[in-house]
Design brief:
Enzyme class: hydrolase
Protein name: Lipoprotein-releasing system ATP-binding protein
GO molecular function, one term: ATP binding
Strand order of the largest sheet: 6-7-8-3-9-10
GO biological process, one term: protein localization to outer membrane
CATH architecture: 3-Layer(aba) Sandwich
Structural class: alpha/beta
Keywords: ATP-binding, Cell inner membrane, Cell membrane, Hydrolase, Lipoprotein, Membrane, Nucleotide-binding, Transport
């Protein structure tokens, strides 16, 4: 099996004020093993809705979502939690680091959820942070880090459990252009080094062009973009 993710016929509608809004109108998408795909589209186009579906974070969707050849619709709640924990990593526009934990401890947390031994989790966290140029910031809390450093900690946290697929929702949307360039380059490098795949939602066409493939969300469907 070469595809980490295979989505077919995915639909999602919302009803507001008695009006039904079709956000996703039949999404077909595959992400191959080791591939980094940019999901391009303006704010409000449904990129986050698609990532929430693929991330198994909420229900209400029609269609098929297969992750590592497991059909999400056929899994129990506990099985979906297990698949999300073991196979997926998440990076958001805002880092969502725990303020009372230092950088190392924030990266250790997802490992501890999987019952990884403390010493092993600490070493893994330190290795990831050091590879991202934060070896001198291991004991710093989020408030002591710059915005770019905080987001690099979030990237390390997402990769901590060696996920098959990383889902990133506007991971540089809260950063200035220069810092965004640094973070996205480090993100791409680390995802490749770890052997993961990634689906990255962004509205930034310049950053999207750095990835292996670009798809655009337009009127609820995906269109391949030539780069």
């Amino acid at each position: 099996m070469n595809d980490i993710l295979a989505v077919a016929g995915l639909k999602r509608s919302f009803t507001q004020g008695g009006v039904t809004i079709d956000v996703l109108r039949g999404i077909d998408l595959a992400v191959a093993r080791g591939e980094i795909v940019a999901l391009l589209g303006p704010s409000g186009s449904g990129k986050s809705t698609l990532l929430q579906a693929v991330g198994l974070l909420e229900g209400g969707f029609e269609g098929s979502i297969r992750i590592l050849d497991e059909e999400a619709a056929q899994l129990s709640g506990d099985e979906r939690t297990r698949l999300r924990r073991d196979a997926l990593g998440f990076v958001y526009q805002f880092h969502h680091l725990l303020p009372d934990f230092n950088a190392t401890e924030n990266v250790m947390l997802p490992q501890m959820v999987r019952d990884v031994a403390d010493a092993v989790a600490r070493t893994r966290a330190a290795d990831l942070l050091t590879s991202l140029g934060l070896g001198h910031r291991l004991d710093h809390r989020p408030s002591q880090l710059s915005g770019g450093e905080q987001q690099r900690v979030a990237v390390a946290r997402a990769l901590a459990n060696r996920p098959a697929l990383v889902l990133a929702d506007e991971p540089t949307g809260n950063l200035d252009e220069r810092t965004a360039d640094i973070v996205i380059d480090e993100f791409i490098r680390l995802v490749r080094e770890e052997g993961s795949s990634a689906l990255v939602a962004t509205h930034n066409e310049r950053l999207a062009a750095r990835m292996d493939r670009v798809v655009r969300l337009s009127e609820g469907v995906l269109v391949e973009v030539a780069v």
